[in-house]
Predict the 3D structure of the following.
Amino acid sequence: MIQLTINGLSTSVEEGSTILEAARFLGFPIPTLCHLDGLTPSGNCRLCVVEIGEGERARLVSSCTYRAEPGLKVRTSSERVVKARRMIIELLLASCPQSKVIQDLASAHGVRRQRFRQEYEDCILCGRCVRMCEEQMMAKAIGFRGRGERRSIGTPFDVQSDVCRLCGGCLYVCPACQLRCTYTEPEKAVCGGCANIAPPCIEKEQFSDLMCYMDPCVACEIQKDQ
Amino acid sequence: MNNKQLDSIIDKYHDQPGGLIGLLEETQGLLGYLPEYVLRAISEKTGRPLADVYGVATFYRAFSLKPRGRHLALICLGTACHVRGAPRIVEEFEKHLGVKAGETTKDKEFTVETVNCLGACALGPTVVVDGRYYSHVSRRKVREIIAQTKRGQETGDPAADRRLVPMEASCPACGQSLMDGKHPTEGRPSISLEFLSDGGGGRLHLSSLYGSPVAEWEPAPPPSSPVSAVVLCCPHCGKEFESRSLCAECGADMALLRIHGGFHLEICTVPACRGRLLSLIPTPAEKRT
Ligand code: FES
Ligand code: FES
């Protein structure tokens, strides 16, 4: 067992547990985005920042990947943490404002504006879908591609993968993805989640909005706007 | 490429952790690029998910999924080169060749690509064409570089060839200059070293132009040594040159020479090997005593 202090409360957790797990055990909320129980933590989104250490040596780390250490002093909502967290949310808003998950985060943390160049990305590269596909569905049909600015997630060569079983797991765990739905190009479909259940989008003419299980479906809303 | 060739490459790297990069490198060396069917075959034969293979192949700039032209021009857009006007060099290349960066000309002669730092920032803007470094490239020089490449790299007077970077070498142990004006190569003083091998010893004169493969052995190294390493030492103090790393091409020891300006040059100690490495990272400070 490892002894550590979180927000002044001392607790002990099993060896190998992360700060996030320890904090959740004590009931301290830490917002997360790329973290999902059952998937290996990857530390992609940085939303789960906490401050560790004291004085000069205090620093921010991502709690979902940082393992608890004996004697560690953790603060989950110090001023610095809150500031960093809001900045991260602001940046997420700048890249993917249409995501319900991100909007909810913004409102929960009182982020009311976004000062950066507005983009409308359909992916925040959190990698949940990649890990879902590999670790839970044992398929690894999608992965990260490219690097830097050109980093993206998708199937190799952008064609439907041989190993994809159209389970829709990637869509299910995606915090941003309503727009990644490839209903317009079914042969390139990454997930096919909607085609599996009821294809509201693909044969749109025959279905009313009400039959869409994605409520509201952002893809439809955007089409309506145009 | 036939299946046998691919199989033998795969066998070579199969059980090495991290062997995928070497595998892709070698395959690309054979084909010039990585076609889709090859990546699929690699994934099938190694049992790695295609998404992984594709991810690695698209991550590194060195890999290309599209066929490349006969000549490859890499233009550095790293920070140092960028502030010295590299974007304009790219424009100039694009204008002269009529393609965008990342594309290949219709006649399959030239591929223009950009990279993010070649590790030669002091020489920027840096351009590498077919493995030759051009330093301090200006817009005016671009046309010249293209013409020179088309003419063939090996023709022309190397002394006047500004693509090659001249070096001044000295011994890291005694600090004396290794430059030998009495034995010029390519019109410049050569870097002269002493070598010892099973069959005796002699002098080795290396071209002092970085990027030039010229090396003259006096007398010619014994027939056994094309494959085995020789001992390289300083003609002044007689000390053997220290080895800090192994040759990337053949795995033998590399001899470390000091280059004027705080750099160092490493040369492979196997006579048949062309392995040379100019490191523009300052020489690690001498051991303080
Ligand atoms: S939840 Fe920890 S970095 Fe995303
Ligand atoms: S920035 Fe061009 S070589 Fe480093």
